[in-house]
Design brief:
Oligomer: single chain
Mean pLDDT: 78
Strand order of the largest sheet: 1-2
Strand content: 5-15%
Helix content: 25-40%
Distance between the termini: 31 Å
Radius of gyration: 15 Å
Shape: globular
Number of strands: 4
Number of helices: 5
Largest sheet: 2 strands, antiparallel
Length: 109
């Protein structure tokens, strides 16, 4: 299953086992947002949707993967922060996937 972790590079920080953490700052979400001419359609979440958020996401987008990327593009830090009445923009997952996410450290712009 594809997720934001597939787009991250390893950080230089190691855990106690010598493994490197994935670095969330190596994803350039802003490039995806800057290329939009207008915001996509959105949908509103009700209290039933919040109990099965994955199901609502699937019904709206037709996919079960990349939900974490789209939540990030919507500015959602954690799905537990949703409340009834919140809305999400329906970013097209194909549109999001076509961007070259790169290490911001090497960004020459």
């Amino acid at each position: 299953m594809h997720s934001r972790y597939d787009l991250m590079r390893e950080s230089v920080v190691e855990d106690i086992d010598g493994e490197h953490f994935p670095d969330p700052l190596t994803i350039n979400y802003q490039s995806a947002l800057d290329s939009l001419r207008k915001l996509p359609d959105s949908y509103t979440l009700n209290r039933y949707d919040l109990k099965k958020l994955w199901k609502k996401y699937y019904l709206e987008t037709g996919k079960l993967e990349d939900d974490d990327i789209l939540y990030s593009l919507n500015g959602v830090e954690h799905v537990g922060l949703f409340e009834p009445g919140d809305f999400l923009y329906k970013f097209n997952t194909d549109l999001v996937e076509q961007y070259e996410f790169k290490n911001l450290e090497n960004d020459e712009n």
